[in-house]
Amino acid sequence: MTQIRTEKEMFPFVEEWLKSGITQKEFSQKHGLALHLMPYWVARYRKAHPSAAPTPTASSGFIRVSAPQTTVSPMEVALPSGAVIRFSSLIPVSYLQEVLSVCSR
């Protein structure tokens, strides 16, 4: 297997892989690269090119989705008293149970 260690040598392989739609393992085997090289160089490539993302393919099993931006709190609890508790982020269920037990006293 060929040892490739510079960005100049490796980034073209990463770009080819991004367009290929095959797994890193398949790509490495096809090009005679050590299996550990692709994840390392893909990570370095993405760090150097943050806007570069793999093209979603059926074989990858993943597709890129974007969540709509919202100003609504991700979690809200309306109590029978009419009080509303809003959380700015999701919280563990155990914490919510503790909060509700204090509120119901």
Automatic annotation (TrEMBL):
<protein>
    <recommendedName>
        <fullName>Transposase</fullName>
    </recommendedName>
</protein>
